[in-house]
């Protein structure tokens, strides 16, 4: 059955990700990246759900095309669907600039591995500058310091699954709790992004941190949360606290080094007089407070899972 | 229920939306003449700072003024919808 791209179920492939026939919404990275089955971030249930649907419908296709009315109706339906898809794309691109969003998902597996290693052990990394290429920031594929939204979103989903598993081990699982956990974690990230935006506006920090950058930097704490919950599940209460301190320190270091480049250096070209020191102190406070907030929220969101 | 055994506050997106609506309402009811000018946060007191570093107080005043200007009409609609929904569904 020809499925119009607007409601396409992911076809059963090794990588249940971007539908390559849809160039507007997804960057064409599926050809470059190898299938990432070892990451554990995709839910394999996606594949299984898509496969049985295709089977029984194949038998009916040949019969349908013999009937001209049905084929005309099908073409009309597919043109309607294309129009609907265009309208949806236009509306979406009015609120969320899709090109900017595509930049954050242009990753490959080498970048993901390096970034995960950086999030767990950032102490040996030397150069934290985001490299530019003729005024535009390099995509995450070429620059390991660039923020991306792929890791945070996948880590968020993995965190929800891990939370469900942890609750199930303690026999406290029910489907509503899973949704509650997911929305709580999401709400805390949204709150943190809003507070950061407010502080950046009030202190008139003219950095190039867009709202997606802030979501990316806030979303990296999900990786820390996964590490902590895994430590707690595998090694009990002691393992939980060890993993908590390790991931908190690593994440604090990571956030301070990354944001220092963006926030604190943005004023260095117009620093003059005594006012500069007060401003730079406030910016330092913002960076440090944002970093200190991470362990608090990691503890807050994972302690109930490992009791 | 299992929800009460969790030690953290159970946030949902709905409670976030409620909190945001309440905060924006709180900013929108600050009256220009009767209150903001009295405490030195009026519009006429923020024009002094030129140069590229406006200062915290000026930025806050600008934020309050712009929220009041922009959100006046949408807040009427949102508040009416909230009132009707709360009356119907409690």
From TrEMBL, chain A:
Region Disordered: start-end pairs: 1-29
Gene source species: Oncorhynchus mykiss (Rainbow trout)
Membrane-protein topology: Multi-pass membrane protein
GO cellular component entries: COPII-coated ER to Golgi transport vesicle; endoplasmic reticulum membrane; endoplasmic reticulum-Golgi intermediate compartment; Golgi membrane
Family membership noted in the UniProt record: Belongs to the YIF1 family.
Record keywords, A-Z: Endoplasmic reticulum, Golgi apparatus, Membrane, Protein transport, Transmembrane, Transmembrane helix, Transport
Coiled coil: none
Protein location: Endoplasmic reticulum membrane; Golgi apparatus membrane
Top-level division of the source organism's lineage: Eukaryota
Primary site of residence: endoplasmic reticulum
GO biological process: endoplasmic reticulum to Golgi vesicle-mediated transport; protein transport
Designated name of the protein: Protein YIF1
Transmembrane segments: 149-170, 177-203, 223-256, 282-301
Function: Has a role in transport between endoplasmic reticulum and Golgi.
Biological classification of the source: Eukaryota, Metazoa, Chordata, Craniata, Vertebrata
TrEMBL record, chain B:
Transport keyword on record: yes
Pfam family, one: Yos1
Keywords in alphabetical order: Membrane, Protein transport, Transmembrane, Transmembrane helix, Transport
InterPro entries for this protein: Yos1 (IPR013880)
GO cellular component, one term: endoplasmic reticulum membrane
Principal subcellular localisation of the protein: membrane
Cellular location(s): Membrane
Keyword Oxidoreductase: no
Listed transmembrane segments: 12-30, 69-89
GO biological process, one term: endoplasmic reticulum to Golgi vesicle-mediated transport
Superkingdom of origin: Eukaryota
Family in the record: Belongs to the YOS1 family.
Function: Regulator of endoplasmic reticulum secretion that acts as a key determinant of brain size. Required for secretion of extracellular matrix proteins. Required for correct brain development by depositing sufficient extracellular matrix proteins for tissue integrity and the proliferation of neural progenitors. Acts as a regulator of the unfolded protein response (UPR).
Protein name: Immediate early response 3-interacting protein 1
Annotated source species: Oncorhynchus mykiss (Rainbow trout)
């Amino acid at each position: 059955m020809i499925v119009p791209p607007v409601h396409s179920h992911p076809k059963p492939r090794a990588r249940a990700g971007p539908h390559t026939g849809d160039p507007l919404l997804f960057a064409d990275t599926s050809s470059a990246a190898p299938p990432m089955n070892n990451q554990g971030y995709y839910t394999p249930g996606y594949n299984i759900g898509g496969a049985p649907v295709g089977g029984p419908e194949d038998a009916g296709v040949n019969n349908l095309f013999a009937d001209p009315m049905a084929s005309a109706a099908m073409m009309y339906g597919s043109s309607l669907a294309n129009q609907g898809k265009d309208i949806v794309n236009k509306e979406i691109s009015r609120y969320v600039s899709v090109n900017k969003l595509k930049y954050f998902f242009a990753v490959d597996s080498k970048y993901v591995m390096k970034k995960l290693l950086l999030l767990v052990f950032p102490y040996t990394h030397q150069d934290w500058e985001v490299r530019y290429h003729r005024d535009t920031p390099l995509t995450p594929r070429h620059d390991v310091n660039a923020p991306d939204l792929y890791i945070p979103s996948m880590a968020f989903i993995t965190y929800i699954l891990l939370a469900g598993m942890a609750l199930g081990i303690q026999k406290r699982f029910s489907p509503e709790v899973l949704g509650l956990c997911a929305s709580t974690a999401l709400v805390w990230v949204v709150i943190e992004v809003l507070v950061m935006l407010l502080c950046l506006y009030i202190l008139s920090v003219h950095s190039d941190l867009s709202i997606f950058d802030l979501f990316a930097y806030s979303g990296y704490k999900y990786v820390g949360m996964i590490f902590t919950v895994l430590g707690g599940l595998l090694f009990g209460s002691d393992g939980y606290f060890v993993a908590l301190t390790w991931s908190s320190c690593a994440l604090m270091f990571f956030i301070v080094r990354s944001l220092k480049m963006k926030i604190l250096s943005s004023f260095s070209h117009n620093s003059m007089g005594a006012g500069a020191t007060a401003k730079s102190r406030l910016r330092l406070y913002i960076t440090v407070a944002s970093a200190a907030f991470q362990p608090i929220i990691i503890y807050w969101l994972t302690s109930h899972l490992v009791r | 229920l299992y929800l009460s055994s969790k030690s953290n506050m159970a946030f949902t997106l709905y409670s976030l939306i409620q909190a945001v609506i309440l905060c924006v309402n709180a900013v929108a009811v600050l009256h220009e003449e009767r209150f903001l000018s009295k405490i030195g946060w009026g519009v006429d007191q923020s024009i002094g700072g030129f140069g590229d570093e406006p200062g915290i107080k000026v930025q806050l005043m600008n934020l309050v003024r712009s929220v009041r200007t922009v959100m006046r009409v949408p807040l009427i609609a949102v508040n009416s919808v909230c009132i009707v929904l709360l009356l119907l569904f409690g």
